[in-house]
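Quick one: structure tokens for this chain, please?
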Amino acid sequence: MNYFKSTLFIAFLLVGLMSLPVLSQAQDTENGPKPISLEEALKMASESGKKILVDVYAEWCPYCQRMHSEVYKDDSVLEAISDYFIWVKINVESDEKVNYHGTEMTEAQFARALENQSVPTTYFLNEEGSILGSQPGFIESPMFSSLLNFVGSDQYRVQTFQEYQN
């Protein structure tokens, strides 16, 4: 009888766990924020008031690879993203579908809609998904963290980045 009860308990436990909402690509995890879909980011941004950080890259790009392996793993960068942004990655050559305010397109088409000229490029969008600005090129962690804090804290509204740095 104990075997039956423990089997029944495990079955109920598994059913209960499977019925919990799944938080796929959760924005904040133990290891910091993770990129999520554009559609999900737009929804979360409008609800939270956070800005959207769009990381436009290409698989073949060595500077993009360095951004992902070094810069986006830096604690100060992850902290700034967590504090101010919802992170989205867009591959300029991908046929994966994204949804931007009800318009479905590929990631490559979305990158073109952003008028992306080079990779890597970081775009800053407000909570409605409108472009606030962009920064092309590889950026070392300390400078990138500072840029994220500058834009995220809205300091760009009252001073230049140079003034913010000083």
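Helices lie at 2-18, 38-48, 62-69, 75-84, 107-113, 141-152, 161-165.
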